[in-house]
Amino acid sequence: xxxxxxxxxxxxxxxxxxxxxxxxxxxxxxxxxxxxxxxxxxxxxxxxxxxxxxxxxxxxxxxxxxxxxxxxxxxxxxxxxxxxxxxxxxxxxxxxxxxxxxxxxxxxxxxxxxxxxxxxxxxxxxxxxxxxxxxxxxxxxxxxxxxxxxxxxxxxx
Length: 157
Ligand SMILES: [Zn+2]
Ligand SMILES: [Zn+2]
Fold this sequence. Notes:
The protein starts with a helix and ends with a helix. Helix content is 36%, strand content 17%. The longest helix has 28 residues, at 126-153. The protein contains five helices and six strands.
């Protein structure tokens, strides 16, 4: 799903404190990076692709934003597209990723932590990813079983 530019340019509300977030251009990270920062909790919103630009670590940013499945474990609702978000973990850092637009919510200080594990040489934790895929599979299995049951009940094949 790609977002329209006018939607990306719109100011968003912090998903935690519901105040308008500031749009800040970050020169240190190079051109074209405008991030949204909450003036109250200093959380950061990153649209799809921006995490990779900030961390300059495709392995880590892909790890955090791909294969996120369809199940939501986060309490946050995406400030950009209003879809549910899911929690992704890298080492001991938990970040919220949108299941709809792949935007990322970082609490205050989490960007620095991610930068640190990125520099320390992040290694993908295959075990926890496998666990997540397994949960996803079980969920799908259950859904198709229910669907099959429903079809039988309604007499359709
Ligand atoms: Zn906030
Ligand atoms: Zn979203």
